[in-house]
Amino acid sequence: MIPVAARAAASQLLSPEFRSVFVKTLGLTLLALVALWFGIESLLGWLAWPWLEALLPGLPSWAGWLGAIIAGIVLAIGMALLVAPVTAIIAGLFLDDVAAVVERTDYPNDQPGRPLPALRSLVLAIKFLGVVILGNIIALLLLLVPGINIAAFFIVNGYLLGREFFEFAAMRFRPEAEAKVLRRKYAGTVFLAGLVIAAFLAVPLLNLLTPLFAAAMMVHLHKAVSAREPA
Question: Is residue 58 part of a domain?
Fold first, then answer.
């Protein structure tokens, strides 16, 4: 079930039907990441440098270069951890567009899903943004524990991404409470699907396509799970 859903989603990423959604999603994701990069860079410079000058007056010239290198490392780590929440909130804005394309092209004989109200979609996306940020903070703390740091990234993001993307897809056809019940019933399957999304997220550049891939994959997975449910 999961391999079939993953292959179907991957094959659709660059299809003509996805082109419009692809351009909008990728453009907004890139803009958000660039804005975050400059925002965090400015914040680090504003917070760190005055403290260094106050603590160590008369810093030699090489200290500035060293500080810039350290700030760059911190910035890179911060951006790596922010990719997940950024892609999550972008997906919240475009999941209905992605789902509509998948349903129209792969399930033309089925009843199409109902788009979530715009305000509800935004509220859920913001809620998920906070949950993912919290999860990645926990994963960052676990980076200090040898042997489980990489596993922590996959477990945290696999659980969160799988849960929220599946519920988004399910809520096109079910009330929110019923979507949560269905997700809990197939919790193991949803988690494994989330691990696939987390692996996709871990690949540089490819991770910018995570919203499209995750949304399409979970539409396929929800269809497969629904087929097993009593009418």
Answer: no
Please tell me the total count of domains within the chain.
1
Which range of 83-97, 99-113, 197-211 scores highest in mean pLDDT? It is 99-113
| Cβ atoms within 10 Å, residue 211 | 28
Whole-number pLDDT of residue 179: 93
Residue 150, domain member (yes or no): yes
Judge whether 127 lies within some domain. yes
Average pLDDT of the segment spanning 107-126: 81
pTM of the complete model: 0.74
The whole-chain average pLDDT of the chain stands at 78
